[in-house]
């Protein structure tokens, strides 16, 4: 998925959906690493893309957490 499309999708998701997506991305990355370790897959762009996507999801979660904390401080 292209970066711009993923960022637009992530910004439209609820907090619970983002958490679910983070779990799915982490599990997919773990399965990919296992496949490479046992010789059934290749390390390459797919693993790199999966890591970047996971990082983008975690960044969006952190951004929301910080904005929520900032809102609590001013209230």
Describe the overall structure.
It is a single chain. The protein has 75 residues and is mostly helical. Helix content is 83%, strand content 0%. The chain has three helices and no strands. The longest helix has 30 residues, at 45-74. The chain is elongated. The mean pLDDT is 88.
Set out the fold topology.
Elements: H1 3-11, H2 15-37, H3 45-74
Helix pairs in contact: 1-3, 2-3
What key attributes describe this structure?
single chain, 75 residues, mainly alpha, Helix Hairpins, elongated
Quick synopsis:
The protein is an all-alpha fold.
Domain module count? 1
Percent in helix: over 70%
- Would you identify the CATH architecture? Orthogonal Bundle
- Tally of DSSP β-strands: 0
Shape field: elongated
What is the top-level CATH class? Mainly Alpha
Low-confidence sequence ranges? none
Radius of gyration: 15 Å
Structural class given helices, strands, pairing? mainly alpha
One letter per element, helices H and strands E, the order comes to HHH
Measured between the Cα atoms of the first and last residue, the distance is 38 Å
Strand content: under 5%
Instruction: Indicate the mean pLDDT.
Output: 88
Task: Note the main sheet.
Answer: none
Number of helices: 3
In the CATH hierarchy, the third-tier topology is known as Helix Hairpins
């Amino acid at each position: 998925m292209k970066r711009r499309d993923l960022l637009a999708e992530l910004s439209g998701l609820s907090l619970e959906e983002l958490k679910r997506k983070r779990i799915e991305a982490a599990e997919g990355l773990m399965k990919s690493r296992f496949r490479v370790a046992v010789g059934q897959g290749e390390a390459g762009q797919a693993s790199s893309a999966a890591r970047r996507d996971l990082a983008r999801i975690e960044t969006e979660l952190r951004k929301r957490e910080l904005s929520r904390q900032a809102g609590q401080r001013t209230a």
